[in-house]
Fold these 3 entries.
Entry 1:
Amino acid sequence: MSKKIAVLVGSLRANSFSGRLADVLKSLGIEFGLQLELAEIADLPFYNQDLDRAESLPPAWQRLRQQLAGCDAVLLVTPEYNRSVPAALKNALDVGSRPVSQNVWDGKPVGIISLSIGAIGGFGANHHLRQSLACLNAAVMAQPEAYFGNVGSRLDKEGGVSDEKSLKTLQGFLAQFAKFVG
Ligand SMILES: Cc1cc2nc3c(=O)[nH]c(=O)nc-3n(C[C@H](O)[C@H](O)[C@H](O)COP(=O)(O)O)c2cc1C
């Protein structure tokens, strides 16, 4: 039976490399028994503990929490902003983490693919995510690490990857992730 994977994309802009890469992963994932579904994060109000009670709970927080609680695993696909995690994605981590007794990240298998138009491939964002997710007791896949650098030349306009090596890299990552989730 296929595994349900919620995908959080760290970029909010239309036609982002991150969104395009997530689409590629979605098509490739089927082969590995992974059913990838986007979890929207653009409309999440900033986490504010004052709102975190039944009478004022933002519906978007509730939706994300339910989606994360109901999936088998989470895949984070994100650019790096100023050597760290884009605020929208960090906010999603925070929203899912509370109330503490209902932390949706607790024990959740998580894969991370960071990307960049530069060569380093979002190493800072990737590892800052690992730092937060360790605190949240998520089960983050340690290896293979995925730093998808020079992304501008590795995705084509037809919604695929532009070279065989990149395709193999993504397939290899998904194969290991499927094993990890299983
Ligand atoms: C606010 C901001 C900060 C950025 N900081 C970094 C950075 O620290 N390292 C890096 O490699 N690229 C950085 N970039 C460039 C991104 O890699 C590039 O804009 C990429 O296309 C963003 O991903 P997206 O296409 O998914 O939106 C930054 C871009 C923005 C908008």
Entry 2:
Amino acid sequence: MSIDKITSDDQLSHSKDVIQENIDQLKKLFPEIVSEGKIDFKTLQQILGEEIEDEEEFYRFTWAGKSQARKEAHKPSTGTLRPCKEESLDWDTTQNLYIEGDNLEVLKLLQKSYSGKIKMIYIDPPYNTGKDFVYKDNYKDNLKNYQEVTGQIDSEGNRLSTNSDSDGRFHSNWLNMMYPRLRLSRNLLKDDGVIFVSIGDDEYDNLKKVMDEIFGEINFISNFIWNCSTGGGIRPKHVNKTHEYLLMYSRDKNSLLQLNAPLSKSATEQYRLSDDFGGLYREKDFVFKNSSTNINQKYFIECPDGELVTPKDGYIYRFIKPTFDEALSENKVVFKKSTNGPLLNNKGEQSGWNIYIKKYLGDGKGSPLSILPKDIVGLYNNGTSLVQNLFDNNRVFENVKSLELIIYLLEMILGEDDVVLDFFSGSSTSAHAVLEFNRRNNKISKFFQVQLPHPTESNTIAYKLGYKNISEIGKERIRRVVEKIKETNPDKSVNMDLGFKVLKLDSSNIKSWDGNPDNLESSLFDSVSNIKSDRSEEDVLYEILLKYGLDLTLPIEERDIQGKKVFNVGMGSLFICLSDDITSKVAEGIGEWKEECDPEVCRVIFKDNGFTDVEKTNSVQILKRFGINEIRSI
Ligand SMILES: C[S@@+](CC[C@H](N)C(=O)[O-])C[C@H]1O[C@@H](n2cnc3c(N)ncnc32)[C@H](O)[C@@H]1O
């Protein structure tokens, strides 16, 4: 009896193959286009008939390198995410993730585990002002490129340079960076999920077009305007820019529910009256100017002294009669004496009354405003000084987004227990916002942060304080926020998830899975062990989770069985033992542990050379006896 080996050809050794999935979808939709397993494009064209655009000139958005960027989004990653317990908080229990790495590779790696699972994505990419660093992907070998960019290995080229506006491909470079990332991020969203992207004037128009293409024009929700500064500073020659944008798209507009956001302070202040039924309220005109002749909203109402009133010409009531009667019975109608109101009595004379309706403050929420309420969301200054205070008055990061701005977005979208992803996380404002949102509202949403360990410049305060890259700043901010919550809210903090798991992007742990073509020669000599010598069992464990598409925050238990380390992932859904000299007694122990957990499905993975042939055969038989049929080796 043998164990199937997971080879480099196996689907499991790659991140999700998006192209294949799309082809499968096409085949399902149009079975007639499949000929000997291949797509017959001509037949597809015939089926689509008039829907095919065959004019030379038609409306489209393109740039230098677009088709390559599209291909890049579909190429699987052969890298992995390596756990880093030392830098994490509450490793065993937390469901928050902090991932260090280039976000393109990371997004590819997350496809299997998190497709359709993320409720909200917020990103704040480089705005391409001509002065900022824009990551240049190297399609041939993006993992090596990543190690060069982050200074992990020597580089000949100067990859940390900024994208200068004198570069002939200035906008194309930025779009080539953004396109595959946005494309992959869409797959991760739930049907009722949304993405917000912060942007400035430089790339607003390109971003809008590229988002329309990727998310669909139909899923555009809003272009929010954030009044982010008060101006000031040196007087510009032309216009003092005091705002920027936030584009919002849904994955599927039909699935997106009613949006609610906190009312601005100036709006809340209007609710000054109060009653025992609904609390704070304001009085709103029940009769308003409208030239409609709709008789449903013009009827007689009896006032407290018996006078019958109806709207003058050019005015109507807010509600039809049944709705008014209901409001009246609920004590929501207010009659006030007035000598010049918009009502006439039944003799056609000026009435002595006006009518108002009570509008309750309720939960203090209303529809979000596309010009974000200034008194709630704050300015850049608020974000920057908040972080400065957290870091003992040291300005370790510039242009931090305002915490309240991100909380306003979270208020619109989050339910009880959702995941918020930010893959340009900088100083971790969105992680801070999720923690603060949970604290205020007693919710349990989670954050996933992705940030390039981009080296800090040696002349910066951050560098001098020992933060050698931006991820260090991001992780430290979360630690400091957590400390503060524990200090100021000891009672609440015990029920909050105040930890985060750190994972770092790297090449595969398994030699034959390593996508680096330069390693091909040497890997021929590595048959002794398939796992790279500098990698731990935990490293391999996380790679297997990614490749199997399991949640990286599943509970993982560890037991010693007959002197061998065995991991139990997700209460018995996957057992992994990567030790040498495994005996059938270990298999017996795994079988018994599986019985304890009683999972719906159970899989077991060993190291290929971890057994002798006899022990392998016996182990497989034992596991099958326990009802475990999926047994693989690497
Ligand atoms: C504008 S900042 C985000 C600031 C953040 N919203 C805040 O409030 O602190 C953009 C961040 O994206 C990071 N970044 C740029 N390219 C990246 C890439 N390819 N992968 C991951 N992070 C990247 C940069 O290092 C920078 O920290």
Entry 3:
Amino acid sequence: MEGMSVGRARGIELRLNWSVFIIAVLVAWSLADTVFPEYEAGRSAEAYWIVGAVTSAAFFASLVAHELGHSIVALREGVEVKSITLWLFGGVAQLGSEPETPGASFRIAIAGPAVSAACGVGGVIAGAMLDGLPRIALLWFGVMNLFLMLFNLLPAFPLDGGRIYQAWQWQRTGDARMATEKAALLGLAIGAVLVGLGVLQMLFSGLVAGIWLMLIGWFIREAARAELRQATVGERLSKITVSQVMTSNPTTVSAHLSVSEFIEAEFFGGRHAAYPVTDASGEVTGLVTLRRLRSIPADHAGLQTLGELATPIADIVTLEPSALVAEVLERVGNIGDNRALVFEKGDLVGIVSPSDLARLIAYVELAVPIDRAVLDDQVLPG
Ligand SMILES: [Zn+2]
């Protein structure tokens, strides 16, 4: 999910998807134009709009608070949190790794709805004690948060309720992957039910509300399918070693070559997008990528050497050939231009590139026909 970065807190990046701006304006508009005039008539349009805008902003802040709830507990459980993104259907906290125990998984999952419950109850109580527009605004804020909590507790992976269900199954069976599969299948089924309800609602009442339910159902199904796929593929990947996927004996380049000398030498023969850089004694000192070289102004190309431009070896992921691919994915990520270098007894024996990993994942997906059948059909949990 793409999003514009708007800030950072405790190393967690906060991102806003463009759809948030549209929804925030729509929320403010529906409050100012419909909700407030209906429950608190006789105020000026300016008052409706100002309170509407503040309430809308507060509501989106409470979505961030929900995700921060997940994130803070995740950090406490030793799980890295990369970013929080707000988008059309709320917030998503992107975790850098999986929780290690069902208990940790449960605590991370329940923390978000707990924050929503607190916002909900707080909003309702504060609203009940006030009068006028603030009363309506706070009651609306509270009720929306309570609704958000209930919705997130649906046992449909990847919603929080699905994660709680997954943690419960994991605790019960001791098998994390099986639990994920079960939770994802339940997510597929509940997503289908929501799509069905959306169709009914479209037929019998409003078109817009029906479409909204259908979209949410569809989104849950897509996300559940992705989780299922990740669990299945992850299982296969967990048995594959780096030596089986790396590009062996990578072409190295000398650190003292200038960029223009390098371009001349590799122009026709060059088959790679990244080159380990070696010093005079043949030792690998870093890694240089074509992407990095392209960022050099043309008039500097004759002056700067590959050694100066290379990412130092200390900043590069290095692995043994016997390491598992899962470790590469965890440490490098399968996107971007990060690569891992493979050393055996101090000698460079291979390089793992994003395209090596993408190809491997494609082959693994091809090799799991039974699981693919599960993914392609609508399978209900047994
Ligand atoms: Zn949540």
